[in-house]
Amino acid sequence: MKKTAVLSLSALALATVALPMVTSALDDINTNPKVTSKSSANNLTPQMEAHNRVSFQGVNINNGGLVLEEVPGYDFSPVTATTINTTGYTFTASGIREVNSAGVTQDNTPQGIVVTDLRGGTTGYKVSMEVKDLSLTKGGNSYLLPVNTFKVSVKAGSFTDAGGNVIPTHAAKTGVDTYKVKGEVITSTAQATGTITSEIPDVTMDVGQQGITSGTYTGVVEYTLEDGKLP
Fold first, then answer.
1. Which of 94, 98, 115, 199 gives the lowest tally of CB atoms within 10 Å of its CB?
2. Could you report the per-residue pLDDT of 139-180, keeping only the tens digit for each?
3. Within this chain, do residues 45 and 78 fall inside the same structural domain, yes or no?
4. pLDDT digits over 30-84, tens only?
5. How many whole angstroms separate alpha carbon 1 and alpha carbon 194?
6. Range of the domain at 44
7. Neighbour count for residue 223 (Cβ, 10 Å)
8. Do 160 and 94 share a domain, yes or no?
9. Which N-terminal residues, if any, form the signal peptide (predicted)?
10. Same domain membership, residue 174 and residue 70
């Protein structure tokens, strides 16, 4: 299962792949009444108890049980003198919202990686990210940005359950290189069920000094969602 977002040095574009939304399935609700008696000084007072039973049936992965709902894109500021170091340029950015899984354009507010897991299992999932070449077309010629690394960091995530307990959803990732290689940026826990939004990814891109032509370079960020196959 893959989804793409667009990467830009100065201009934002839209993600191109959308996946369907899904909802959970309610299998059965059953009430079983039971009659008991309570003694008192003068008589027997009937009391009744009812027991609720709710069963949830997991959704098969092929029927939308595991869905990549939203992914962020990245828009870097233009090069300035302060970004130059001994080996080239260093850019930093954080994930921004582009489109959701229904293909609806969103505003450019901060955005994490959103996954819905309705399978009802404990295998968890993982999300990998791969940054493709950033290119510029100018004067009929095509130029590639000499990217050295594109490193991603995502803070650990959690939610608070009905009992007030803090439940971890995914571990922290620091400095995962994703340039032209799949880097695992989300590794969920077994408890990461339902719809989970990760912390906002922070990225650092290092670019060499040689062979850069002025202009706006754009490229694609490809996200892949897979079954985690946790023990």
1. 94
2. 899 999 999 999 999 999 999 999 999 999 999 999 999 999
3. no
4. 445 554 545 555 666 677 777 776 665 667 656 678 999 889 999 886 655 445 5
5. 18
6. 26-57
7. 25
8. yes
9. 1-25
10. yes
14 shares its domain with 105:
yes
Same domain, 42 and 110: no
Task: Record the tokens describing residue 110, joined without a space.
Answer: 């901060």
The 8 Å CB, 24+ separation contacts for 47-53 are: 53/28, 53/29
Same domain for 107 and 51, yes or no, is no
Rounded-to-integer distance, Cα 58 and Cα 36, Å: 36
Amino acid identity of residue 182, one-letter, is: K
What one-letter code names the amino acid at 11? A
